[in-house]
From TrEMBL:
Covered residues, full protein: 423 to 747 of 749
Main location: cytoplasm
Descriptive protein name: phosphoenolpyruvate--protein phosphotransferase
UniProt-annotated location(s): Cytoplasm
Keyword terms: Cytoplasm, Kinase, Magnesium, Metal-binding, Phosphotransferase system, Sugar transport, Transferase, Transport
A GO MF term: phosphoenolpyruvate-protein phosphotransferase activity
Source organism (scientific name): Brevundimonas balnearis
Family per similarity comment: Belongs to the PEP-utilizing enzyme family.
Gene from which the chain derives: ptsP
Domain of life: Bacteria
Length: 325
């Protein structure tokens, strides 16, 4: 299998009907960069910046952050990198940051909520990102955006930091793209307001599904009670894809789903063309992509979205088998 995936490394991911699918990887530490070339990944669709903070004994200084981001950009070369700003709080506790104890950490002051409440933390990180990407393309996205206001406020902080750098005569990134992660179900009903403010969005299906199904993703008693291949989940994803297509907003999926061939089959059938997966998922997903005839798959999938079943996994599997995927 491994050898087979290695042969696919330089083969572009194009479906049988000619649709180009972009396969990116998720990363978070410098060691992840080593696999970038082996997998044939087309870039980093999600760089989890909090990993550096989690393995550190103290708050990483501006210089340490800048150094890591520069290394990531260097390793990626011409390939795009999307940096996700700090996603800490909740269950990702940093011993050196005095956080209040929360009854429900997953619903607590995590990610962008912490970033907006303690702006010095987020501003420092944005400063490091802007500095590391001087003269290059910088893509930044904010985790756990639940309201349009939060995105607006976070984006304003990017502007403030750009002004700060400009006043000091620093070279800015040659191109700056600011995006939101879609992880809170509230956004599903406010995409019309959100999308015009973003340069791109990325769907974090791990969190989106845990919040949609009110089932803690880290709790084995409940995390398997629902199936991502279910009509509600697939319809939510379809809605996001459709709204993004309307506004011409680039959209990717960066949750674990994107790295599993059957789930990724469902995603591309719904119209997603950018998937960011753990490194090990790129080969298997690419092999799937090469075998798919999207128009035929789409006809089959449309019926499944109307099903009253809690899971359509078996049906998606049969569809894939019928189409020789
Ligand atoms: C997600 O929630 O799907 C996601 C990609 O972010 P993380 O897994 O880091 O929460
Ligand atoms: Mg998430």
């Amino acid at each position: 299998r491994r050898a087979e995936f290695a042969l696919l490394r330089d083969v572009p991911a194009i479906t049988r009907d000619g649709t180009r699918i972009t396969l990116l990887t998720n990363a978070g530490l410098a060691v992840d960069l080593e696999s970038l070339d082996d997998t044939g990944s087309e870039g980093i669709g999600l760089f989890r910046t909090e990993f550096q903070f989690m393995v550190s004994e103290e708050l990483p200084r501006l210089e340490a952050q800048t150094l890591l981001y520069r290394r990531v950009l260097d390793a990626a070369g011409d390939r795009p990198v999307t940096f996700r700003t700090l996603d800490i709080g909740g269950d990702k506790v940093l011993p050196y940051l005095d956080a209040e104890r929360e009854e429900n950490p997953a619903l607590g002051r995590r990610a962008i909520r912490l970033g907006l409440d303690r702006p010095s933390l987020l501003r420092l990180q944005l400063r490091a990102l802007l500095h590391a990407a001087a003269g290059r393309e910088l893509r930044v996205m904010f985790p756990m955006i639940a309201t349009v206001e939060e995105f607006r406020a976070a984006r304003e902080m990017v502007d403030v930091e750009c002004d700060w750098a400009r006043r000091r005569g620093r070279t800015l990134p040659s191109m700056l793209r600011v995006g939101a992660m879609i992880e809170a179900p509230s956004l599903l009903f406010h995409l019309d307001a959100l999308l015009p403010l973003t340069d791109f969005v990325s769907v974090g299906t791990n969190d989106l599904l845990q919040y949609m199904y009110a089932a803690d993703r880290t709790n084995p008693l409940v995390s398997d009670r629902y199936d991502p291949l279910s009509p509600p989940a697939l319809r939510a994803l379809q809605e996001i894809q459709a709204r993004c297509a309307e506004t011409g907003t680039p959209v990717s999926v960066c949750g674990e789903l994107a790295g599993r061939p059957l789930e990724a089959f469902a995603l591309i059938t719904l119209g997603f063309t950018r998937l960011s997966a753990p490194a090990g998922g790129v080969g298997p997903v690419k092999r799937m992509v090469l075998s798919v005839d999207l128009p035929a798959a789409r006809r089959g999938m449309t019926n499944l979205l109307g099903s009253s079943a809690g899971s359509v996994r078996n049906e998606v599997e049969s569809l894939a088998r019928k189409l020789n995927v």
